Structure formats: C-alpha cells, structure tokens
Amino acid sequence: MSRYSPTERIGVSAIENKISSLGWIFREQPIVDMGIDAHIEVVDFNKNPTGRLLGVQIKTGASHFKDKTDHLVYYGSITHLEYWLKHSLPVILISYLPENKQICWVEISKDSIEMTEKSWKIKIPKSQLLNETSLLTLSSIADGTKFEVRYRNLLLHAGLMEFLDNGGTLQVKKEDWLHKSLSRGLVQLIKTNLNGTQEIIESNNFVYSGYEITEAVETVYPWAAVHLDEDFYADNLCESVYSIFPKANLKRNRAYPYEVLSGEVGLYMFKLELNDLGKSFLQVIQYLDAN
Fold first, then answer.
1. Which of 15, 88, 185, 281 is close enough to 175 for a disulfide, judged by CB 3.0 to 4.6 Å?
2. Is residue 21 over pLDDT 90?
3. Which H or E element spans position 235?
4. Could you count the other beta carbons within 10 Å of the beta carbon of residue 129?
5. Is the pTM of this model over 0.90?
6. Helix, strand, coil share (%) of the chain residues, nearest 5
C-alpha cells in the first residue's frame, strides 16, 4: 500500500498553517517516514526561537479514529509506540478532521497510553484544541520531564555553585507587589566577584502563588539556602517599610523588604549560600569530571 496520501498532505498543511499563525515554527520531516511527521519549535514571548522542540505525528481524517462523545480514540502499532517513547524529543499526536477543521492533540507518554490485548490506544480529548491557550502546556512539554528539567537547571547553575564554593557572593534582589492576589515582580541575581565588582547575571519577571517570598526564591535556586542579607539591610533599610510592616512586628516576619515604593512594591535583598543539594551536586560534578 502506498505511504503517500493526499488526505495526509491536507492535514500536514493545515497544521503548518496553524502553528505559523500561533507564532511558532513548523518544520516538516518529509524524507523518511519513521513516525515523526514534523518538528515544532517553541518561540518565546519576545518572538525568539528557543531551540526547544516537539516531535509531531499527524493523523488526518475520521478513518484513523473511533469517535466518542468527548474524545477520539487512536489505536497504534507497538513499533511506533516504542519509537515515540524512546525518542529524544517529547512527541505529540495531532488529529485533524477536515470535515470540521478541528485540530486536537495529546502527548504520547507512558501515562497517556492504554495497553490493549493486541496493541495500545490513546484518547485525544476534543476539548484539547491546538490554539493559543494550549501553547503554555505545549511549551512545558517541550521542556521535558520533571526529572530532565530539574537536572538541566542544576547543570546550568553548576558554575554559580562552584563560584559560591570558592568564596564568591551571590545576592537576589526581588520585587514583590504587596497587595496583589497573584504575587509578581522582577528577580535579579547579582554576582559580586572576588575583586569587589558586581554584575547582574540573571534578570526575569516572576509570577507565582502559594509561596512565601523566601520559598519563591528557593524554587528558582533550589541548590541554595536563602536568607535576608543582613549586612545590606543594616545600610539600606528605609522608613517606607514601616508603613506596611509595623516596626514592632518587623522581625516576626520571615522576610521583609528593605524599601517599599509608593506603598505598593516591596524591594527585598537575599543572600545565597550552598545548601546540601548544592554541595552534593558539586560532588557529583567533580566525580563526573574526574580523569
């Protein structure tokens, strides 16, 4: 049977147009069909390609699925399943129904598939449309598994851990909107070199909920113990703080700002020290780098 189908070409074109309209990058893989029809590259909010990719398998037409009330069911071969689960990229299955131009998707993972007597199947929720709303979830999938994300972040920060271990100083300046239900603000990582010069080496806006401010910083730098920088506070604590944090109760707060801008934005300064995770990870790095 021919592996070329005009119906499938219609689906690939529809997905390419959709991904392009959402501002991401679609790259078809037409040379050898091994179960990956295309790669999708994530583009960030500043319209910069990120190098983070998704593998994509596209199935076009109702004949590929069993149509249920709120989902489609796809039955696949073990060969393709093993290929997808072992792939170096996260893989999503996209269904395209030309009759209503509906584009739905699902991640192919051990948790999303269900083994059958002869093979396996996967449910594609009809509510899980390929649209702007799904971009955040797809971006998270492109990051990889929780293990991969955490390990990669530790590797990215290994140089900072070594810097602290060698006597360097790292501070975190954190802005926090004090009266917002969803906490937010700029986070800057400041490096003080051994010669006393300072540089901002990371600067990001951070939105979070459910964390006390110190805990929020710890989620960004899990390899560090986070403390208020007492030396900085001794020189920079402003009277504006007392309008929000009464002086008598100030020390009862786990963390308090050194300045409050316009009664709305608290400025905090934290100092980082290596915690047990950071020290242990440096030992792992030293072992892996050993001759």
1. 185
2. yes
3. helix 230-236
4. 14
5. no
6. 35, 35, 30
